UniProtKB/TrEMBL annotation:
Belongs to the short-chain dehydrogenases/reductases (SDR) family. It comes from Actinomadura logoneensis. The keyword Chloroplast does not apply. It comes from the Bacteria. The keyword Oxidoreductase applies. Keywords: Oxidoreductase. This is SDR family oxidoreductase. GO terms for molecular function: oxidoreductase activity. The lineage of its organism: Bacteria, Bacillati, Actinomycetota, Actinomycetes, Streptosporangiales. It holds the Pfam family adh_short_C2.
Length: 248
């Protein structure tokens, strides 16, 4: 399927590995030029080399609104503009209500909520002016089905989902779509850190019986950026192998 992304310009945050990297790879495969960011210069350089000539590495840390804004600005400068924004960031430390101190919440909100707001603030107005744009936010299945050991992530990403839905309604008439993808368990370093890399044990918790392939997730990101997905906006879509068990 031709997705109509040839010549489009994308900024994909936290894309030196994992789901962000695969989103960048899928967009490049469809003909987009992509700016990727990461905090580690060496890892970022390796990722850009793997992605090829259409990848533009930007050393940036989206853990703060200032860093998130700086990434989008540098992506705009490198690419001549940004048509597609994929927001993404690592997760905050694990913990529950009793074990998580008050002072841990503000950094988590900066990382998984305010960074999303900042990137959208930097990228979306120009999309509105051009009459075309795509925002895809990578959040978590915990938005719908909170994970008991991840109270910081549950809290921050739920807030981001509320922001994204509101934004989607506001910019829909300007040709800009705003959606979020809610990944379940995928074979990433984040999951390895949280679960020790026992993929078989994780797979047993998923109805499909398999851990998600990050490349499949990346392909879904690319589709939501496509011309065919122009009628999809304001959606929060689970990509989790059936892990979420609710009806809505």
């Amino acid at each position: 399927m031709e997705l109509g992304l040839e010549g489009r310009r994308a900024a994909v945050a936290a894309a030196s590995s994992g789901l962000g990297f695969e989103a960048a790879r899928a967009l490049i495969a469809e003909g987009a030029a992509v700016a990727i960011c990461g905090r580690d210069r060496d890892r970022l350089t390796v990722a850009a080399r793997r992605l090829g000539d259409r990848a533009h590495p930007v050393l940036a840390d989206v853990a703060t609104p200032e860093g998130a804004t700086a990434f989008v600005r540098e992506a705009q400068d490198a690419l001549g503009g940004v048509d597609i924004l994929v927001t993404n960031a690592g997760g905050p430390p694990p913990g529950g209500f009793a074990s998580t101190p008050m002072d841990a919440y503000a950094p988590a909100l900066d990382l998984n909520l305010m960074s999303v707001v900042a990137m959208c603030k930097a990228a979306v107005p120009a999309m509105q002016e051009r009459g075309w744009g795509r925002v895809v936010a990578i959040t978590s299945i915990s938005v719908r089905q909170p994970i008991p050991t991840l109270i910081l992530s549950n809290t921050a990403r739920a807030g981001a989902t509320g922001f994204l839905k509101t934004l989607a309604l506001e910019v829909a008439k300007d040709g800009v779509t705003v959606n979020s993808l809610l990944p379940g368990y995928h074979a990433t370093e984040r999951l390895r850190t949280l679960r020790g890399g026992d993929w078989d044990a994780v797979a047993n918790e998923i109805p499909t019986g398999t851990v998600g392939d990050p490349a499949d997730f990346g392909a879904f990101v690319a589709f939501l950026c496509s011309k065919q997905a122009r009628f999809v906006t304001g959606a929060a879509i689970s990509v989790d192998g059936g892990e979420y068990t609710g009806l809505l």
